[in-house]
Structure formats: structure tokens, C-alpha cells
Amino acid sequence: MTTIDVKTTSSLRRFFKRFNLFMIWMLRLGFRRWVNIWPAVIGRIMVIVHTGRKTGLPRRTPVNYAVMEDEIYCTAGFGTNSDWYRNIQANKQVEIWLPDGWWSGTAEDISRDEKRIPLLREVIIASGIVGPLFGVNPIKMTDQKIDQATADYRLIHIKRKQRLHGSGGPGDLAWVWIPTIILLFILYVLLRFRL
Who has greater pLDDT, 7 or 78? Predict the structure, then answer.
């Protein structure tokens, strides 16, 4: 890897850390369907809730994903250096927040599977502009080129177990909108009658 590649990778990692926080808040505020409104550009996004391998605390990470034959696949584009990847290696039990609901599941690294390239191609297509940002064009590249370009990527299969309900999942902060709208209305009325 050249120095420019290392700098670019470092910049992308910083960008995605900030962007991921924004996406988590969007999902928690109840915008689950809006997050996935433009998959051709921003990709299909889900949140994986995993357990910190050192802290034991729940962690949330947005990732791009693809659904094939009702199975969920995603990739750790930063490879084995991704904290969430290392966490799911320590504890395979996860939760996933999808546009159609909240699920418990089991994560498994299938990077050595014979179907790796076709599955990975679908995940990268489902990532919108993210694949090309990392120099991987899944439409134009041959299987061999994708294999070379994604040698460090980890392909993850998440097997859904059951639908979850209750607090702590996507939309858990949607209630914030009611007091916010009331407060904005009160401010509007106060400002309107002061003038």
C-alpha cells in the first residue's frame, strides 16, 4: 500500500466514524426507511449491534448490506482491523436493524467460502458509491480483479433468528419529535405575537 493509499484510507475511516454516528441517530430517531431511500447512491444501510470484546458493552455499527435468498450479507471493508469485525469474532450473537425490522442473529465470517466473489459483488453493488470510493467497481470488474481488490475484506453472513420488539432498538428515540414540535410551535407563537 502506498503512502497516498494509507492517507486516503485513514481519511475515509475518520469520515465513516462521523457518518456512522449520524446514521445511528437517524435510525434511533425513527428514520429507518429514510436512511435507505436512495440505495443507488448511499447504499443499503443496516446497523449491527454487537458486544465489545473488551468492555462487554453493546456497540452499534452501520454497514452496507445485501439480501440474497432471504439471507443477510455484509463486508468489513477495512478487514480484520475493523473493531466491529473483531467484536463479532469474539461473540457471534448480534442484532441487526433493517428497514423491515429489528432482528437477533448470528454472524459468521464466510470469507473463505467458494461463493465469496459473487456474494461480495452483490454487497458492493448494494453499497452504492462506497465501493467505487474504495476503488472497487463491482459492475465493471472481473471476478479476478474483485478478488485482488478485496483480498483484505471480510465477508460476513448474518443468519436472522427472531424479530425483536421493545426498547433499545431502532426508533427508540422517535418520541423526541413530539416535544420538539410542541416547543417549536410555542417558540413560533411567542415570536409571532412579540412582533
Answer: 78
